């Protein structure tokens, strides 16, 4: 999907509510610095100072729209950033521009970092000749899930279920609580009805077969080492070719190719949202038309 079109997934009312909460968190009371900057018209350039994938434009726009500022973009969503890159220009009252600066940079940096990690994972999977789905997980930052799930999509990965209502996932603790795989899957199948798929986390081929026999649509082989994963998936597919297999647990960008195989349909990676480093952006005000290029501080 074209990254530019992904903005249509974001409900305007939800965006506005998120922006309100972010700005309220950063400035819940008096903004003393506004007396320093004043309310005169000002302009700033957004610079990208590290390589990666640009993601998060709708959130950046929504923040500054709320503050009566206008954003002009020079690069489309999903662009590959080569530092130092001039990404956008923001214009508006000086105090408003500076009030939104940190919130907007935080959001863009983290969203772009996740998109960059997702893009790297997809590239590694395709490089291994695998055509399945690289996906995220629910291991997201509380209150920031929409941004992080959106970043996965911009990077070319699947977002996986957005929340508990997107898929009936029967995990190991559900199996214990229900009294076994078969009972858990039957209950999940009844709850899912016709509208939702049922996925079951399994720790052995025996559990996977039980789950498939009970009506699971997907089987999650969690924390399997590659040498155990692929034979287990092959054996399950031989009996239940229509059951999809997901691999998860301990998968990183470095070892991802080892988990790619002909019987694996989905590889989910918590590190895409939990461990992706934020990209480095800066917003620099300028008084004249020629905006100074910021220096990069290499660590």
TrEMBL record:
- For the ligand (substrate), the binding residues are 102, 137-139, 161, 171, 201, 222, 248-250, 269-271
Q: Which domain of life is it from?
A: Eukaryota
What does the subunit section of this Swiss-Prot or TrEMBL entry state? Hexamer formed by 3 homodimers.
Question: What is the name listed in the Swiss-Prot or TrEMBL entry for this protein?
Answer: Nicotinate-nucleotide pyrophosphorylase [carboxylating]
User: Which BP terms does GO give this entry?
Assistant: 'de novo' NAD+ biosynthetic process from L-tryptophan; NAD+ biosynthetic process; quinolinate catabolic process
Pfam families, sorted: QRPTase_C, QRPTase_N
Q: Which CDD domains would you find in this protein's record?
A: QPRTase
The record, for PANTHER family, names: NICOTINATE-NUCLEOTIDE PYROPHOSPHORYLASE [CARBOXYLATING]
Q: What does this protein do?
A: Involved in the catabolism of quinolinic acid (QA).
- Pathway in which this enzyme or protein is active: Cofactor biosynthesis; NAD(+) biosynthesis; nicotinate D-ribonucleotide from quinolinate: step 1/1
Q: Which UniProt keywords apply?
A: Glycosyltransferase, Pyridine nucleotide biosynthesis, Signal, Transferase
Domain Quinolinate phosphoribosyl transferase C-terminal span(s) in chain numbering: 114-284
The protein's gene is named QPRT
As its record notes, the protein acts as a catalyst of: nicotinate beta-D-ribonucleotide + CO2 + diphosphate = quinolinate + 5-phospho-alpha-D-ribose 1-diphosphate + 2 H(+)
Family statement: Belongs to the NadC/ModD family.
